[in-house]
Specification:
Blueprint (H helix, E strand, L loop, with lengths): L1 H15 L22 E4 L17 E5 L8 E8 L8 E7 L6 E3 L5 E4 L10 E10 L10 E8 L13 E6 L7 E4 L17 E6 L4 E3 L5 E4 L11 E9 L9 E11 L12 E7 L7 E6 L11 E6 L7 E5 L5 E6 L10 E10 L13 E11 L6 E2 L3 E7 L7 E4 L2 E2 L8 E5 L9 E3 L5 E4 L10 E10 L6 E11 L7 E2 L5 E4 L7 E8 L11 E4 L9 E5 L4 E6 L11 E9 L7 E13 L5 E3 L13 H30 L6 H7 L19 H4 L2 H5 L26 H14 L49 H9 L10
Parallel strand pairs: 1-3, 2-8, 9-15, 16-22, 24-31, 33-39
Antiparallel strand pairs: 3-6, 4-7, 5-6, 7-8, 10-13, 11-14, 12-13, 14-15, 17-20, 18-21, 19-20, 21-22, 23-26, 25-29, 27-30, 28-29, 30-31, 32-34, 34-37, 35-38, 36-37, 38-39, 39-40
Pfam families: CADH_Y-type_LIR, Cadherin
Subcellular location: Cell membrane
Protein name: Cadherin-12
């Protein structure tokens, strides 16, 4: 500041003392600097308004920031050449902070800062000054602009904007391994002095880490730092301005550094021998124990793989790793037996899965331990000698025949007797029985292979000392076949031979089937029966592969002479005892073309030699079929008409069927039926149409002989009976025609048996047989029921 004030004073002396001559003769404005103060001179105004050339212009002031004095801080002074010190000039100030931050003395032009300034808040202010005539209020010269700069002081300490920091570095890293770079920011002016020059240092964290004073890079300072010894470090970093000199401001931050794990430690068993006790009844695949190797590493570096070293009993066990606890789980691969072996010893090896090649020199990353397993005795169920028993028996074997036996033993130290039972789960188990002590299996029923060829059931063996301990085994019994069925032709064949067949032609291939066994298990033979072997029209050629061919023996066959041939074929099996059967094959003679293709085997082909063509024969057959259809239709219509003889009218039913539910009123009761036909036989002659069937318009009227008035009613009924017997239009079933009448005093007398003194047993129905075929059924009924109690007659 002193240097700058001296410079201003020197310039003022030079201009004001006339040591420097102006370039032109015109008056000029000069800028002078008074001792210990800033002064700005403004040019005067000439009366003749000539242009005045400016001299040196000093337009920049400085003010200290954070001024804490009791008086306003003096900044500088404005002065115009036109100001003669007479008080006629007034100085004004405008721009940034005018009136609020800076003030000016209107008479002297002194500028002061009225409050403390912060360079970090605003580094400079731009203002405008002007000299004004007090009387005229007019500017004496143009407005001049100048700058007031806030001069920086070291009032801001360095700050770590990103702190606190978190960093990590692998354990066992060498010296100088990069960890992290920190950065502090100073708000002071970096272009002025050393206020913003920062230097870094470690206040806490040595001797483990170091920091570069200029860049702030943190590095490891010790080799082989072990995470398993110490994992977390807190490092205190300081940043100091003024280049770290005394009096500089400082800021601090905390850096949390974690050592990350590497696989630098092998797994180790805490003890060399592990003892386990396992019951002999442990199921296969069950976990029988756990062992653990300790690895101080972390994460995947601590993952352990366990293996059983081949040795004594190692093949009976297996070991897997529990991914959550990193324990070795020992499992059972094969069953244990206390009576066979009571203890097992083997070694287990533990090793890391993920190795780090940098630490191979430290030794093998694995460890071994011995496992001793003691087998505990358990009371076990009996054990069968076989896992499955297979037996065979012939069908129709007598009941009680022993077909096999099962054996189970108690292998425990204190052996117990065993009892056998059949596991009854199905009805098929009742075909066999088992001896509870010996275990022998016998038939309980006759077996039929064709019904059931195989039996499958279970047998249970339990200890007598503890029946709850039992075991089960499956029994498979195959029923062997006995040759009891003869072989037969497998399918019915439709065999045809051509009329123009030659001798030696095979017209049919036949095969056989046997219900005893499949054809693959037997050999069948084919031959003609002895009675057909004499002058045969056909013969049988056995191919010896369970098939045979029907072979012709004649040169041509005639359908006119014989249309069908019956060939008896004898089929014989190869089992013992030998079974055979005779099967008759039907061979039809057919018309064929020259290639042997069958054209027709129908009966109509026989008439071809007559000279009729095939079309004519078809037309004839069609006509025959149409005529047959007409006849069938006519007969059906006739039957339908005869079925309609059942009366639908209530009056017809009343006249033909009379119910004797109560006693009638005699001849006077005319509501039940029409008795006039009985009283006056002439009425019958007038009624030419029967009432019990529908009238037939095609039938001719029957001629009846006249009946006399005094003809006895019996003769009348007999006459009607003959008419019904001789009537071709009568229905083809028994019809009940009622000719009875009711009441006392009737001329014709009563035909009812209600008032009869005799019982049905006293009556003789033999006369019904003389009434003709229409009454045959009625005669048979009464003839058969003479010995039974009588019923009411309607």
């Amino acid at each position: 500041m002193l240097t700058r004030n001296c410079l201003s004073l020197l310039l003022w002396i030079l201009f004001d003392g006339g040591l420097l001559t102006p370039l032109q003769s015109q008056p000029q404005q000069t800028l002078a600097t008074e001792p210990r103060e800033n002064v700005i001179h403004s040019p005067g105004r000439q009366s003749h308004f000539q242009r005045v050339k400016r001299g040196w212009v000093w337009n920049q002031f400085f003010v200290l920031e954070e001024y804490m004095g009791s008086e306003p801080q003096y900044v500088g002074k404005l002065h115009s050449d036109l100001d003669k010190g007479e008080g006629t000039v007034k100085y004004t100030l405008s721009g940034d902070g005018a009136g609020t931050v800076f003030t000016i003395d209107e008479t002297t032009g002194d500028i002061h800062a009225i409050r403390s300034l912060d360079r970090e808040e605003k580094p400079f202010y731009t203002l405008r000054a002007q000299a004004v005539d007090i009387e005229t209020r007019k500017p004496l010269e143009p407005e001049s602009e100048f700058i007031i700069k806030v001069q920086d002081i070291n009032d801001n300490e360095p700050k770590f904007l990103d702190g606190p920091y978190v960093a990590s570095v692998p354990e066992m890293s060498p010296v100088g391994a990069y960890v992290l770079q920190v950065k502090a920011t100073d708000a002071d002016d970096p272009t002025y002095g050393n206020s913003a020059r920062v230097v870094y240092s470690i206040l806490q964290g040595q001797p483990y880490f170091s920091i570069d004073p200029k860049t702030g890079v943190i590095r490891t300072a010790l080799p082989n730092m072990d995470r398993e010894v110490k994992e977390q470090y807190q490092v205190l970093i300081q940043a100091k301005d003024m280049g770290g000199q005394l009096g500089g401001l400082a800021g601090t931050t905390l850096v949390n550094i974690t050592l990350t794990d590497v696989n630098d430690n092998p797994p180790r068993f805490p003890k060399s021998i592990f003892h386990l006790k396992v019951p002999e009844s442990s199921p296969i695949g069950s976990a029988i124990g756990r062992i653990r190797a300790v690895d101080p590493d972390f994460g995947q570096n601590a993952e352990i793989e366990y293996n059983i070293v081949p040795g004594d009993g190692g093949n009976l066990f297996d070991i897997v790793t529990d991914e959550d606890t990193q324990e070795g789980i020992i499992k059972l691969k094969k069953p244990l037996d206390f009576e066979t072996k009571k203890a097992y010893t083997f070694k287990v090896e533990a090793s890391n899965l993920h190795l780090d090649h940098r630490f191979h020199s430290a030794g093998p990353f694995k460890d071994t331990a011995t496992v001793k397993i003691s087998v505990l005795d358990v009371d076990e169920p009996p054990v069968f000698s076989k896992p499955l028993y297979t037996m065979e028996v012939y069908e129709d074997t007598p009941v009680g025949t022993i077909i096999g036996a099962v054996t189970a033993q108690d292998l425990d130290v204190g052996s117990s007797a065993v009892r056998y039972f059949i596991d009854w789960k199905s009805d098929g188990d009742s075909y066999f029985t088992i001896d509870g002590t010996e275990g022998t299996i016998a038939t309980n029923e006759l077996l039929d292979r064709e019904s059931t060829a195989q039996y499958n059931f279970s047998i249970i063996a339990s200890k007598v000392s503890n029946p709850l301990l039992s075991s089960k085994v499956n029994i498979l019994i195959n029923v062997l076949d006995v040759n009891e069925f003869p072989p037969e032709i497998s399918v019915p064949y439709e065999t045809a031979v051509c009329e123009n067949a030659k001798p030696g032609q095979i017209i049919q291939i036949v095969s056989a089937a046997d219900r005893d066994l499949s054809p693959a298990g037997q050999q069948f033979s084919f031959r003609l029966s002895p009675e057909a072997a004499i002058k045969p029209n056909f013969t049988v050629h056995d191919f010896r592969n369970n098939t045979a061919g029907i072979e012709t023996r004649r040169n041509g066959y005639s359908r006119r002479n014989q249309e069908l041939y019956f060939l008896p074929v004898v089929i014989e099996d190869s089992s013992y005892p030998v079974q055979s059967s005779t099967n008759t094959m039907t061979i039809r003679v057919c018309r064929c073309d020259s290639d042997g293709t069958i054209l027709s085997c129908n009966v109509e082909a026989i008439f071809l030699p007559v000279g009729l063509s095939t079309g004519a024969l078809i037309a004839i057959l069609l006509c025959i079929v149409i005529l047959l259809a007409i006849v069938v239709l006519y007969v059906a219509l006739r039957k339908q008409k005869k079925k309609d003889t059942l009366m639908t009218s209530k009056e017809d039913i009343r006249d033909n069927v009379i119910h004797y539910d109560d006693e009638g009123g005699g001849e006077e009761d005319t509501q039940a039926f029409d008795i006039g036909a009985l009283r006056n036989p002439k009425v019958i002659e007038e009624n030419k149409i029967r009432r019990d069937i529908k009238p037939d318009s095609l039938s001719l009227t029957r001629q009846r002989p006249p009946v006399e008035d005094n003809t006895d009613i019996r003769d009348f009924i007999h006459q009607r009976l003959q008419e019904n017997d001789m009537d071709p239009a009568a229905p083809p079933y028994d019809s009940l025609a009622t000719y009875a009448y009711e009441g006392n005093g009737s001329v014709a007398e009563s035909l009812s048996s209600i008032d009869s003194l005799t019982t049905e047993a006293d009556q003789d129905y033999d006369y019904l047989a003389d009434w003709g075929p229409r009454f045959k059924v009625l005669a048979d009924m009464f003839g058969e029921e003479e010995s039974h109690s009588p019923d009411n007659v309607t």
